[in-house]
Amino acid sequence: MSAAANKIVRGPRGPVAYERWGDGAPLLLIAGLGSRARLWGELPRLLSDRFTVLAPDNRGVGGSREGAPFTLEGAADDAALVLADSGFGAASVVGVSMGGLIACETAARHPEAVERLVAASCAARLTPSHRRVMRFFEIAFTRLEPAEAADAFMAFAFGSAFADKFPGFVDQAAKLWAMDPEDRPGALAQIEHLKGGWDLRPRLGAIGCPALVLAGELDPIVPAAATRELAAAIPGARYREVPGAAHSVLAEGGSALLNEVIEFLST
């Protein structure tokens, strides 16, 4: 297993920092709200035996803190920029939560750049309930210290059965998700953009690559019904709902789900 190489590519929207792991077929990992590449923990290292893993910091945080304000369309352009900088014309793309929105936007906006798509725990549009979720994060990021906000989020990130069985894993996830204080303005800017509303449904029908959409049965952040709606709008998409899982469906699905995702990406 190789160590990560830290990269920065400078484009028209500003710098995009990303980590590069391994050698093999290219795989772009796009994390969620307020997240740097470090959110993925050990996953890039685990996948680097099979793939060249590219994991960017989202616009507004980490090494991508400067530049144009965050938008989903701009984030898709950032993703395409990372692929081009890495020497790949196309890659498989895995996105979770807000990263799933970016992954779908990338597949619609840059269809030549996305060979296979995995979108987890994300919704095709902003609904009234999701607007309240955005307000929760806004309050947490504004009024709590980063570690406190991360601990609060863990109550929604994992289902109770998983959290009770693997408390150490949840504690580590909280540490990975806790943002640096200087990333707070960028995270709040991401929230402000999302609060303005999005509706990917008119563009999802144009996605032509194979797609796998994942949801947690008990996800309180993005209800499974909302993710199911997104899957239904992508032609031929495969939908997989993980029983008992909450928002962190890739982790909660365990090795069985990870192997299923790897098989999908490798087909």
Q: Can you describe this structure?
A:
The chain has 267 residues and is α/β, with parallel strands linked by helices. It has a single domain (5-266), classed as Alpha/Beta hydrolase fold, catalytic domain (Rossmann fold, 3-Layer(aba) Sandwich). It has 12 helices and 8 strands. It has an 8-stranded mixed beta sheet, with helices on both faces. β1 (5-11) and β2 form a beta hairpin. α2 (72-85) crosses α3 (98-109) and α5 crosses α7 (167-177). The longest helix is centred in the middle third of the chain and has 16 residues, at 128-143. The mean pLDDT is 95.
Strands in their spatial order, largest beta sheet:
1-2-4-3-5-6-7-8
Summed up, the helix count is: 12
Number of DSSP strands?
8
**Architecture per CATH nomenclature, i.e. the level-2 architecture:** 3-Layer(aba) Sandwich
Measured by DSSP, the beta-strand proportion falls in 15-25%
- What's the number of structural domains? 1
Query: How many angstroms does the end-to-end distance come to?
Result: 22 Å
Give the low-confidence spans: none
CATH superfamily membership: Alpha/Beta hydrolase fold, catalytic domain
Mean pLDDT: 95
Share of residues in helices: 40-55%
Q: Main β-sheet, in a few words?
A: 8 strands, mixed
Shape: globular
Class, according to the CATH hierarchy?
Answer: Alpha Beta
State the CATH topology.
Rossmann fold
Order of helices and strands: EEEHEHEHEHHHHHHEHEHH
Helix/strand-derived category reads alpha/beta
Return Rg in Å.
Answer: 17 Å
